[in-house]
Amino acid sequence: MDTAPEGVDPNVPNVARMYDYYLDGKDNFAADRAAAEQILKTFPHTKQGAWANRNFLRRAVRHVADSGVQQIVDLGAGLPTQGNTHEIAPEARVVYVDYDSVVCVHGRALLARTANVDFLQADVRDTDVLLDKVRDMVDFDRPVAFLMLALLHFMPDDVAYDVVAKLREVSAPGSYLVISHAVDPTPDTTPEALEIYRRSTAALNLRDREGILRFFDGYELAEPGLTFPDGWRPDDPDAPVDDRIDFGYVGVGRKL
């Protein structure tokens, strides 16, 4: 990306553009790349983690669609890239949500001619407003899948658990919650990474496994439960699982 859209400060690292860089994308600025490279010095497997997360998204969405859910809300969708949710579940009604204006501009441009798909600019943390907007696009009397990949670790506890609780309350039985969440692999060096993200558009709030599992209260976890990304229903069950803990945990829950 060479030129910043109006209203966008290219000198402030943006978490969505940093993630795009990890995925070898082109929609990022020098400040994003510099911040991402600092993270890679502390967590050298971050790129592998981003790709593992993306591959988990593909398998989880396929599972949700195969389970008969035809409405998917992808929260904190990030910059468009290959293997988007609507491409994995082409028959589903898909609503992408992000609060970042740059992300939304790119998303709408990509999806301009795509039927049954919308890109909504909204802040997930303002959940009541978000749900009011989504109600025009999704029928909450029928099951819906909420995707929250690499999102909740950018929210403090009081906000994160409240957001998930509100999504659960509005969902019909049979709805799904799909989460991926970073953990703290190296407590001695993590403060350096936290400071980098504090200077970007969103600060990190890492949790342990029990803290992540708590998000699934009221849901039945699909097998194999809360696990590493590569271990969640891999395409090749015989392939070795990369259990480097800095990838974090993933899970898919069905509302009871």
Automatic annotation (TrEMBL):
The keyword Transferase applies. SUPFAM superfamilies: S-adenosyl-L-methionine-dependent methyltransferases. Keywords: Methyltransferase, Transferase. One of its GO terms (biological process) is methylation. Pfam families: Methyltransf_19. One of its GO terms (molecular function) is methyltransferase activity. This is S-adenosyl methyltransferase. It comes from Nonomuraea maritima. The lineage of its organism: Bacteria, Bacillati, Actinomycetota, Actinomycetes, Streptosporangiales.
